[in-house]
Design a protein that fits this description.
Length: 139
């Protein structure tokens, strides 16, 4: 291959990638893309299980769960693009949750602990927080 053809391939990465993919397919190889970022450290099912252990009272768990479902869809990494609120309970700023643990960005348990403390201190309980949320659309 000439130097000019190599230079053109380097300057055109999309074409080079296509060429490599075609060559791999011809050889019977399968190319897969690597994920752009690591998966969320805690799935929504795992986060719910953690919350259930931390909140044994059915009514309090249900209220907490409804808030989290509305706020983040049980996504530990949820970020509000407008306000910057972060995590399961959409703390603003998210760094407030550091008071519950240094792993606040990735730990469902830490976010749940902080959220429970917040709901208990501000509204008396998760059911109190849910009542406020229903009346105002936020908590």
């Amino acid at each position: 291959m000439s130097v000019s053809r190599i230079a053109r391939r380097i300057s055109s990465p999309k074409k080079a990638i296509t060429t490599v993919a075609m060559a791999a397919a011809t050889a019977g190889l399968v190319l897969t893309a690597a994920p752009a970022q690591a998966a969320t450290t805690t799935s929504s099912a795992s986060a719910k299980a953690i919350a259930h252990k931390m909140i044994p009272n059915a009514a309090q768990y249900a209220a907490f769960s409804k808030i989290v479902e509305h706020e983040s869809g049980w996504d530990v990494d949820a970020t509000n693009s407008s306000s910057g609120a972060y995590g399961l309970v959409q703390a603003l700023p998210g760094s407030k949750m550091a008071s519950a643990g240094s792993d606040w960005k990735t730990s469902a348990a830490t976010q749940i602990e902080w959220g429970l403390d917040y709901m208990n201190s501000r509204y008396g309980s998760p059911t109190g927080a849910w009542a406020f949320w229903q009346a105002n659309g936020w908590y």
